Amino acid sequence: MLSLLALREVPPRPSAARTSVPRNKTLHSRRPGPDGSVPRPTRVLLSQAEGYPVGVKQFLQFCLILIYPAWLFFVLIAWPIWLGGMALEGMLYVLFWPVRAIHKKNNPEEYAAFQAELKARKEAARTR
Questions:
Q1: CA dihedral sign, ordered 24, 27, 30, 35
Q2: Are 92 and 76 spatial neighbours (Cβ–Cβ below 8 Å)?
Q3: Residue partners of 38: CB distance under 8 A and separation at least 6
Q4: What is the largest CA-CA distance in the chain?
Q5: Count of H helices and E strands in the chain?
Q6: For residue 41, what are the CA distances in angstroms to 50, 52, 65, 76, 90?
Q7: How many Cα atoms are found within 13 Å in the side-chain-facing hemisphere of 103?
Q8: Which residues of 107-120 are buried (b: 16+ CB within 10 A; e: fewer)?
Q9: How far apart are CA 38 and CA 29, in angstroms?
Q10: pLDDT band at 8 (very low <50, low <70, confident <90, very high)
């Protein structure tokens, strides 16, 4: 039986030239090519910083390539959370309406003072 395994022919390992998948389809494919070309999305962002001095251009490229996409991702995550919070606020407002109505009926002076304080806070926030 050992002789049968030894006689079995093992196919040769394919070299890089014989595979159907190119070897350079990795992170290295994002580097500029020999002609200086950069992949399309990055080229569009880099072109926004053309015409500025070198230091300003590097800072703008940093902001456009790293900060702006991260900010967009944050907005896409935070916006639904903010909308959910607004919906929750509306539900709580409706849910606690009887409590506010009872407080307004039993303590009208205190309720009026609290409403005046809220109005003053809103006005102060608008003037900032």
A1: negative
A2: no
A3: 32, 46
A4: 103
A5: 6, 0
A6: 15, 20, 10, 20, 41
A7: 11
A8: eeeeeeeeeeeeee
A9: 10
A10: low
Residues constituting the chain: 128
Are 71 and 91 contacting, i.e. CB atoms less than 8 angstroms apart?
Answer: no
- Name the one residue in this structure whose structure tokens are 């015409």: 51
Cα separation of 96 and 40, whole Å?
54
Q: How confident is the model at residue 101 (pLDDT cuts 50, 70, 90)?
A: very high
pTM of the full structure: 0.42
- Token representation of residue 119: 């109005």
pLDDT of residue 12: 66
Count CB neighbours of 63 within 10 A: 14
% of residues, the chain, pLDDT over 70? 66
Structure tokens at 88: 């929750």
Structure tokens at 43: 């080229």
Q: What is the reported pLDDT for 70?
A: 86
How much is the average pLDDT of 56-82? 88
